[in-house]
Please model this.
Amino acid sequence: MSRRQSAKMAESLTDLPPNILMEILVRLPLKSLFISRCVCKTFLSLTTPNSHFIDLHSSNATQILGFQFGDVFNPSKLLRLAEPELDIALENFVLKPLYQLPQMGTSVIMYRTNYREDNKLVLVNSVNSLLYFVRRHAPDERSLVCNPVTSEYLIIPDVDRKIRLESRTKSMWLGFSPGTNQYKVLRISSSVNGEYVEVGAQVFVIGSSSWREIEALPLGNDHSWDLCSTFLNGAMYWLDDQSWNDIFFFDFERERFGDIALPPEFGDEQLKNKHCMSTGVLGGCLCVSYNDFNAQHVDLWVMRKRGDRESWIKEFVVDTVRPRAGPAFGRFKPLQVLRNGEILMLWINNDLVCYDPRRKSLRFVGFHLLRMTTPRNVAFTPSFIPLKDALLVDRVNQYIRPRYKRALVTVLM
Model:
């Protein structure tokens, strides 16, 4: 389309009543919405964040996927996005730049005189419209919460010096308490007590001034926290490869740990093959997937009532037979249900697949870029709600790359 044709189309659209035009604009994919704000002053004024626009956009927004490439030692500073509702329809997944992580300074590497390195921020998880990053392999272990749509972020204070000296961080997670409308950060730590290693936990309520200890964990030091995790309705759920026979969870409102039994049908074979098991969310319910690769199908189990083992239902049996290929080994992580009813899943972190329940068919999207490396990924719902309003704090920071500052300010204001 030529520039003249684009101008004519914009001119004809601006003849529409403002309320109709806003209804059209808020339904655009996120990147297209950003671009539309640069088309004309009418589009810019209609999409300038205010209470009406934010509410209207929130009621129409669909989940998108965020990807951070690189490993925990050298993560990318650029967060990229894919918009499944659009990309699946076009059968052309394209990763688009979304957010440039702020620079948080450098740290001195112990035992290496005058040697400094960047403190890298690693994508950990998402809650609602917010993303959580942790600075790994740094002496202060700081982290930040950001809204990538508004380019705003808040740095979480480091744990108290006494806590940091007495323990070592194993993992940190962002959560949300619906009852109190508070965001919180959970820290899992380990400390040596004589001949034993104890696992503890601390919580930081965003907007408060300090961390505090909570109940001790009924677990040992050999549990993994980073492989299979899912946040749902105020709780974080984990599934460990080897040590746990149940799903472990933390309730951010009550600030307590607990466990949920796997489906009663799970026997020794499933427990021995937990590397083929994952957690996710389907239809607002906790979901467990199990890849029975010998039989070439993935079972999707949904818990209809929280904490009730008897409410597990095998919702779908997904045939994974691939023409001219062997069994699909490894995890299938449920990501989201698309508007057309298809279930989007991530296969062993390097390919996206879609399952159509009506046709009972599975197709591998072929996201070849993922196969070059194993990215960290999250599904989240974009929002224009200001970060300080979401976190209930007085001040936040905004980071815009100097090179693109002028263009992004126009788009994101």
Summary: The two ends are 27 Å apart (CA to CA). Residues 107-116, 402-413 have pLDDT under 50 and may be disordered. The first helix runs from residue 3 to 13.
